[in-house]
Amino acid sequence: xxxxxxxxxxxxLYTEDIASEESTAFVKEHLETCADCKAAFDAMKAPVxxxxxxxxxxxxxxxxxxxxxxxxxxxxxxxALVIGVFARLTKPIPVHTxxxxxxxxxxxxxxxxxxxxxxxxxxxxxxxxGHPYTMYLYPIHGVQLNAERSGxxxxxxxxxxxxxxxxxxxxxxxxxxxxxDLSDTDAVYFEPFDNTDHILLYTKAGYTPEAGxxxxxxxxxxYFLIALVGTVLLAAVWFVLRRLKKQKASRVFGLLLLIAxxxxxxxxxxxxxxxxxxxxxxxxxxxxxxLLLIGAGLCGRKLLKKE
Length: 307
Fold this sequence. Notes:
Blueprint: H1 2-15, H2 21-31, H3 35-45, H4 54-89, E1 93-95, E2 124-127, E3 134-139, E4 144-150, E5 153-160, H5 162-167, E6 178-181, E7 187-190, E8 199-203, H6 219-243, H7 247-270, H8 279-306
Helix pairs in contact: 1-2, 1-3, 4-8, 6-7, 7-8
């Protein structure tokens, strides 16, 4: 038994073949006669069974998922920024003035090819080239027109954009014309969108025009106010729930807060100031940017949970 204790102490060195010659010979001789020590030696020599690599796979999967979350966060923020800049550059800005000659101008361009009534400071000129039921509008460079009909009355508005003002040089010659069929039109008005009366451009004989004016559309201001107030109220409720440690309720209100805050930021990015002559366009940009910000917020929240 005394030799067994010494041999078992020497077995690790013997197994690794780093024992001295005398110890190696002693252990080898003992193993030939002692079954107990031989069993201990065989157990040491047996291959060690390692745990499966499941934990390593889990770590790799978590790292890959984190990479996708970071990529999603960056992609959503970059896309929101690009779309916000594009929306800002292309936001219609009303043009409030118009140059015209009381009704349809029956006149053709002169021999030099220039409109005889052209004024570089003007916005829109009209002429009919002798056709009584057709009106041609010629905006100056960088100005576009929009037209809406209400019954037999045509309302025309002119607008520009920041993009036009930055990227295009204003020229004194027009490069686009707009043609309107007046065969079924009683009157044509220009809408300045500045709380002033419509400017009468054309009226059919026997038709009595009605006075009126067009305001810039303010509906987006109300949407923005709702989003802003909702963000403040939801933030207050979420903060109280966090302090009370109501985890489930705080998660629900946290998601609602993310939606409201994303809408508020989207309004600031794409639709502020919210006064607009194209509310459908502005609302579409706001919704797209808000969805991207919500996606970025969800990615960021998952990343914070994994920290």
